[in-house]
Amino acid sequence: MKPLHHYYRVLLNELHFKRNYNYYMQSQFFDKKKLQSIQTDKLKHILYQAVHHVPYYHHLKSKIDFNKFSQNELNKFPVVDKELIRNNLDMFISDKINKKYSQWSHTSGSSGKPFHFILPFYSDSFENIMSARAWSMGLNYQYKPNDPIISLRSYAPKQGEPLLRRRKNIWYLSAFDINENNLEFYQKTIQESGAKIIRGYASSIYIFSLLLKEKQVHLDTIKTVVTSSESFLPKYREAIEEHWGFKVLDWYGQNERSVTVQQCSFGNYHNNDEYGIVELDENSQILATSLNNDVMPLIRYATSDIAIKLEHNIGACECKRGLSIPFKGIDGRSDDILLKDDSTKIPTANIYTAMQVFEKIKQFKITQNTDKSLRIELVEHSPIIQSELDEIRVALSYRVGDLPMTFQIVPEIIRSQKTGKIKAIESFIK
Ligand SMILES: [Zn+2]
Fold this sequence. Notes:
Elements: H1 4-27, H2 32-53, H3 82-87, E1 103-107, E2 115-119, H4 123-135, E3 149-152, E4 164-167, E5 170-173, H5 183-193, E6 197-201, H6 202-214, E7 224-228, H7 234-244, E8 249-252, E9 261-263, E10 269-271, E11 276-280, E12 285-290, E13 301-308, E14 329-330, E15 338-339, E16 345-346, H8 348-356, E17 361-368, E18 374-380, H9 386-400, E19 405-409, E20 425-427
Parallel strand pairs: 3-5, 3-6, 6-7, 7-8, 17-20, 18-19
Antiparallel strand pairs: 1-2, 4-5, 8-9, 9-10, 11-12, 12-13, 13-14, 15-16, 17-18
Bound molecules: zinc ion.
Zinc ion is lined by residues 264, 266, 268, 270, 317, 319, 321.
């Protein structure tokens, strides 16, 4: 049973969605000047709240010009990253809010290290509006709230549980059982749902598209494919678009909900300008400023996600949206795909979800050997006991099946010498 304030927030967020959805469906087509002025007003509010109510930013109070405010004032703020916020959490939280009743969330991130943060009261509504808007950007079909939708994302049925779970208009199909034996069931479900849209992790959609292609199955009722949460490897995109015959709409965001960016049907990545501001640093890392979070403002927040720079500025997009185009694509994280015991491919984002719930894990790395066995290295926050290791083993086996696993507690996960990145998931099966 969740506390009462949770249901209160859910209810008010639903009302907020109903009240604001139409406006945001229109505002995406506002001209650039109008969108920029909306953005400037929202930024002014966030920065004002930050310097007056967030301890870390107090020292900037006298330096920010709120009278002649422009977006340039943002440059006076330092770039902040997860490590800094994690180590000084209270300094980043507004003195106006009650932490106990706030909506806390966290992410395990691609480095496998958890990061905790507070979301603003209407975060769920904004997120749902932005998602609905993103899903409506297809050429031959425009998603509307409550339309049926197939999700090939994070549903991981336990032993004996069905491959399908329905919640409201969403039909969740297991992303862990995309194989020949289940193809007929997946096909039947998609038909029955009446959905014209499939959403999933880039890798799960990729795996599904490969299977459909191999079996020469065409699902003509599907008009929009939306991918998210993982780096979109060029080989994924090629295979997916070749099979479906239309452009995939890729979506970028983070659990921190600082900025969200999505592709329209003409292939351009549009920033949701009313939601956040995107900057790129000298390494093309995405620096995000949330325009909705005034309780734990994320200002010039280093996301660790790497964008692909635009070769030239794109003036107006054929889709006629005024939303800006901040980059060409996401270079993202290049994690490998794990194979299940029966050789079904498992989307990596699902492994992150599984590991996220174990609070004692500071960082992890999962390596799959050529015989499919897994080596799991864990860095501890506090000592992990045997029974907890067993729980982690069970959580992973829901996803990868019955594979031999060895666990090792290590002081740190070694970064790649070549890229400096930590690959949280790596496979030696080529
Ligand atoms: Zn466009």
